Amino acid sequence: MKIKSTEDRIVDVVAIVLVGLAAICCLYPMIYCISMSLSDDQAIIKSSVRLLPDGFNLDSYKLVFQDSDVWLYFKNSVVQTVLATVFSVIGNMSLGYVLTRSNFVFKKQLTTFILIPMVFSGGLIPTYMLIKSLGLYDTIWALILPGFVSTWNAILARTFIQSTIPNDVIESAVLDGANNIQIFIRIVLPLCTTIIAILALYAAVGRWNDYFGPLIYLPSKALKPLQLYLKEVLSSSASSQALSGLLSARDYVNNYVNGERIKYVLIVVSTLPIIVVYPFIQKYFVKGVMLGSVKG
Amino acid sequence: MKAIMKREKPKETRPMSPLRKGIRRDWQLILIGLPAVLCIFIFSYIPMGGVLYAFQDVSLRRTFWSNDWVGFKWFQQFFSSIYAGRVIKNTLILNFWMLLAGTTVEILLALTFNEVRNGKYKKFTQSCTYFPNFISTTVVVGMMINMLNPNTGVLSLLFQNVFGMEKIDLFAEPNAFRPMYVISAIWQGAGWGSIIYLGSINSIDQTLYEAAAIDGAGRLGRIRYITLPGMKSVIVICLIMHIGSMMSMGAGKILLMYSPSTYETADVISTFVYRQGLSSANYGYGAAVDLFNSACNLILLLVANWVAKKVSDVSMF
Fold this sequence. Notes:
- The structure holds two protein chains of two kinds.
- Chain A is mostly helical.
- Chain A has 15 helices and no strands.
- The two termini of chain A are 43 Å apart.
- Chain B has two domains: 2-69, no CATH class; 74-312, MetI-like (MetI-like fold, Orthogonal Bundle).
- In chain B, α4 (82-115) runs antiparallel to α10 and α13 runs antiparallel to α14.
- The chains are: A mainly alpha, B mainly alpha.
C-alpha cells in the first residue's frame, strides 16, 4: 500500500509536463512545415500559419511533382541509399563475423588494423585526392565504397553476433563439418536479422540525409541527390537559381508565394520517407544504441 | 588463396608452422574478411599516407610523386595568418558549449523520463524526442532559416511580438551563431543522446530505491542520492569521450549556416579546410590544416582514453 506524498505528486506532474513540452518542441517544426506546405496563398503572404494549415492549396506540390528534375534527384537518392545500404550490411556483417572468431589466425593483427583508423584519419583533402586518383570522382561509388565498412558498425555487429550465437553452436557446426562460409551464411546471417536491420537502417538514413558527400564528390546534375538540391534551394543566395526550373517567370506574386511554399514542400517531401517508416523502425535504432553502449 | 593451398599440399608430411596451419584452417575466414580489410586499407590507410600532401605544392595536373616538396610552408602560412587563432578558438568554444549544454540537457531529459510513471505516455514522448535525430541537417537548417526569417518566420515573429526582440537577421549576426548552432543541435540530438543515460539508470539496482524509500528519502532525494550517483560512470565516460573529440567538428551543418558576415564566430577548422582546400583548390594548404587537426585529435583522444582508464577502468581500447 502506497500513499502518494505531495512531493510525489509534484514530481509526477512536473515530469509529465516537461516531457510533454519536450515532445511538442520536437514535433512542432515538422508540423509547421507540413502546414505551410499545404496553406493557401493568402496565408503565405501574411505569414499567418501558426500550427495547422490556413486554407488549403496543393499548387506547390503539383509544381514539384510535375518537375522531371525533382524526380531525377529523388531517384538518385533512392538508388544511392539502396546501394549504400546493401554494401554497408555486407561489409560490416562480414567483418563483424570475422572479429567474433576468437581463434582466427590473424585476430591480433586485424584488431590493431581496424583500431588505428579510429584514432587517426588522413582528413578531408587526402581522401578527396584519393577519390580523384581512383577515378571515383563524379561516380556514385565515391559515396558507396568508402561506406562499405565502418569500424563502429562492424564492432556493433560483432557484439551482437557474440551475444546472440553461443560459441557452442558454431563449434558444433564445425564438428559437423560445416566450413566458415557455410556457418556465416546458413547460421550467423539468419540468426542476426535484428542487427542486419539496425545496420541497414543506420546506412540508409545516413546516406539519405547526407548532403556533404554529394557536395564534394558529385558535381554533375545527373547524380545529384535530393538533399543536395534541397541545400541549393534553401540557401538563400542560390535559391532563385535553383528554383528557376520550377517557376514560370510570368507572375511575380505567384512566384513569391510558390517559391516560399516550395521550400516547405521540399522539406516535407525529402523527410517523408523517414516520417512514414519512423514509427516502425524506431525500436531497432534504440536497440542499436543500447547495444553500442554495452561496450565497443 | 586456392593457389597457396595447392602449393602447400605436397609439403603436408613435414610439420607446418602455426601460421601456415592457421592460414590453411582459416582461409575461408580470410576470404570473408578480405573485402572489408581492403576497403579499410584503401579508404583509411592510403589517406593517412596522403597527409604528406601537407608538405607539397599540390596540383591536380601532377601526381603525388611529381608534386614539388615545400617543407613546412603551408604550416607557416597557416600559423602566421589571422585565421589560425580564430578557427582554433571557434572550434574549441563551439565544442565546449556543445559539451556543456548538450550533456546537461541529455542528463536532465533522461532523469525526467525516468520519473514518468505512465508507460505509454513515456514511450510516446520518447519517440517524439528521438524523431529530430532522423531529420537531415539540410532540413534542420532549412527550417531554421525559414522560421527565423525576420519578416516571415514564425519564431522571429514570436520573439518580436512576445519578447520584444528587435527585427534582425539572426543568420547575419555573429553573436547569434553559437546559440543557434548549439540550441538546434540540442533540439536535434538531446532525445537521442538521453537513451544512453536512460540505459544506465535502468541498470541501477531497484532494491537501492526501496531501501532509500524506507529510510525516508522522497522522490527528489532518491534522484539526488541514488539515480545520479548510479549514472556517474556513464557520465564520466561520455564527458571524457567528448573531450577526446573537442577539436573535431563536422563541416556539414556549419557550411549551411554560416556566411562571410558570421565567419568571425562560425568559421571552424573543418570549414576552413573545406573553403581553403576544396573551394579555393589550395590542396596543400588544406591538407596542412587537416593534418594539424588530425594530430590534435589524436593527442586529445589518447589523453582522454588514458584518463578514462585511470578514473573508471572503462576505455575505448
